[in-house]
Amino acid sequence: MTAPRKDHLDATAVAVLLACSLFWGFQQVLVKATLSELPPVFQAGLRLVGAAVLLLLWARARGWALWTADGTAAAGLLAGALFAAEFACIYLGLQYTTASRLTVFLYTSPFWVAALLPLWVRGERLRTPQWLGMALAFAGVLLALREGFAGQGAAATWRGDLLALAAGLLWGLTTVTIRATRLAQASAPRVLLWQLGVGGLALPLLSLALGERWSWAWSPFAATSMALQTVVGAFASYLAWMWLLTRYPATKMSVFVFLTPVFALLTGALWLQEPVTPSLLAALVLVAAGIVAVNRRRV
């Protein structure tokens, strides 16, 4: 029996969303740094396989049966295929562009969700003030990444940009699929298993098709990176995201992903000793204002 859905984000949802956004921002820089040792699609596929195994073990320990006939097979396969394609685009795109530039294109996902989901789920329709809030948040992201565009934009190729834009669209379509199909009534672990399972099968095959070299002689950094990507990124944070999608409005949740590029820029500043500029601080204010506007309840 699923818990009743809520029409607004409570303190629990906000805390979980902030934690996920923080790690996802850090993860973009981590993935980029690991590409020098592990090829992109191999890296992506390995983390999904590992996360799928963890999910199955976790469900077994709790006595949950994830393989049940609940009519979600078609939607689950579609969501899994979209999820796998998104990850392929992200990891391949990071070869051609910077992590910060890829992130801003990737996190156009909320616009696709907001534009497409109301066609199937009437309760997800945004009002004018909420659209303005999304615009404020996105303006904040662009402001935060202004230095990255100015300093590194010339080195980024159209290939990386297009792959990142495609990943954002695929993420949005995955969210729409989950909310507009039978998956909306399925448990969060089952929804996640469809994505991890399909992705874990498809991406290693794609890696082989691309001729990537599979190396198992990892440095301590690469091993730590893969452990974090698998356990925290692909297992814990995605399970939390799926849980939230089954209980809270997807359009209001999605605006929080605008924080991830800002966290990615902050992580880069701490890791690479880059200065935190006034533009970044102004961007944080804009993102916060956008989140407040989108999540303001109708009076």
UniProtKB/TrEMBL annotation:
<dbReference type="Pfam" id="PF00892">
    <property type="entry name" value="EamA"/>
</dbReference>
<feature type="transmembrane region" description="Helical">
    <location>
        <begin position="162"/>
        <end position="180"/>
    </location>
</feature>
<feature type="transmembrane region" description="Helical">
    <location>
        <begin position="253"/>
        <end position="272"/>
    </location>
</feature>
<dbReference type="InterPro" id="IPR000620">
    <property type="entry name" value="EamA_dom"/>
</dbReference>
<feature type="transmembrane region" description="Helical">
    <location>
        <begin position="12"/>
        <end position="30"/>
    </location>
</feature>
<feature type="transmembrane region" description="Helical">
    <location>
        <begin position="278"/>
        <end position="295"/>
    </location>
</feature>
<feature type="transmembrane region" description="Helical">
    <location>
        <begin position="192"/>
        <end position="210"/>
    </location>
</feature>
<feature type="transmembrane region" description="Helical">
    <location>
        <begin position="216"/>
        <end position="241"/>
    </location>
</feature>
<feature type="transmembrane region" description="Helical">
    <location>
        <begin position="42"/>
        <end position="61"/>
    </location>
</feature>
<feature type="domain" description="EamA">
    <location>
        <begin position="159"/>
        <end position="295"/>
    </location>
</feature>
<dbReference type="GO" id="GO:0016020">
    <property type="term" value="C:membrane"/>
</dbReference>
<protein>
    <submittedName>
        <fullName>Threonine/homoserine efflux transporter RhtA</fullName>
    </submittedName>
</protein>
<feature type="domain" description="EamA">
    <location>
        <begin position="13"/>
        <end position="145"/>
    </location>
</feature>
<keyword id="KW-0812">Transmembrane</keyword>
<dbReference type="InterPro" id="IPR037185">
    <property type="entry name" value="EmrE-like"/>
</dbReference>
<dbReference type="InterPro" id="IPR050638">
    <property type="entry name" value="AA-Vitamin_Transporters"/>
</dbReference>
<keyword id="KW-0472">Membrane</keyword>
<comment type="similarity">
    <text>Belongs to the EamA transporter family.</text>
</comment>
<feature type="transmembrane region" description="Helical">
    <location>
        <begin position="131"/>
        <end position="150"/>
    </location>
</feature>
<feature type="transmembrane region" description="Helical">
    <location>
        <begin position="100"/>
        <end position="119"/>
    </location>
</feature>
<feature type="transmembrane region" description="Helical">
    <location>
        <begin position="73"/>
        <end position="94"/>
    </location>
</feature>
<keyword id="KW-1133">Transmembrane helix</keyword>
